[in-house]
Fold Reverse transcriptase zinc-binding domain-containing protein.
Amino acid sequence: MMTFGEVRCAHALQTWNRVNGPTLSTDTSHARIARITSSLSTVMVESKDELISLVTQVRIGHGYFGEYYAHFKIPERSDCPCGTEIQIREHILYDCPLFNDARHTLYSTAPDGHIGSLLGIKKGIEGLASFLKFTNAFRKRPEDDEVQ
């Protein structure tokens, strides 16, 4: 039996092509943001602004997590509270033991395990929103305010 990570890798290209098409070369940043905003408004009509903001941050990879801090040289902690050296988006969504209890919301909406399904299709975005409602994932840690 394949692990969740192996399934995710095995279906990566297939899912990417299904969700995004075979190429993004003619896609502009503005067009991508318009698609993101459009899909959020149809998925989470009754959601709070904070949740919509969090979902957007996770989808575009800009937010309160170590990989973002390290990339942009922001003086915040880049490690994960679980002990992982660098906190990346995929670690939070798929591997971090701090979120094991809420991870079922992701598995049920993106059974192929690919990040493109989770972040790029309606059902996956709904699962991500549910995951974010029940966790403190992708939120600034209180101790981050003290790091300088």
Summary: The mean pLDDT is 77. The two ends are 46 Å apart (CA to CA).
